[in-house]
Design goal:
91% of the residues lie in helices and 0% in strands. It is mainly alpha-helical.
Length: 134
């Protein structure tokens, strides 16, 4: 129901926007309470909007392509991102809070842009599939 209101693009943009806003808030008001609130907000938005929107992107794929791509993403991409985030922690700690936040905000903007691109691509593929069926 929520995803119908905001659409796929809105669902895919929700978490990057909350993440970018959270980093801005953390830089302006650092502290454990701020971090906790940002994490809770980010996780709520992720599970309420982004995850269902991301799952809806697979609707235009064949069953075989869907399961192959989901397995690749769930294993390779997520495990690689876990490893990179573990290694990147020391690097971000070394360059300082301001630069780290700037990089995180830029990454969130790129992430949002990718979400918009994927949602538009999914919509175009769905329209192509519908026109082929008629």
């Amino acid at each position: 129901l929520l995803l119908r209101r905001v659409g796929t693009i809105g669902g895919l943009l929700a978490t990057p926007l909350i993440t970018a806003a959270g980093f801005i808030w953390l830089v302006s008001s650092p502290g454990l309470a701020t971090l906790k609130l940002v994490q809770v907000a980010r996780r709520c938005v992720h599970y309420a909007f982004e995850r269902p929107a991301r799952e809806s992107l697979y609707n235009v794929l064949s069953a075989e392509d869907k399961y192959k791509s989901k397995n690749a993403i769930d294993t390779v991409v997520y495990r690689l991102s876990d490893a990179l985030s573990g290694w990147g922690y020391k690097g971000f700690a070394a360059i300082g809070e301001g630069v780290s936040a700037t990089v995180a905000i830029a990454a969130s903007i790129a992430w949002g842009g990718l979400g918009v691109f994927l949602a538009r691509r999914q919509r175009a593929l769905a329209e192509t599939r519908r026109s082929e069926e008629t």
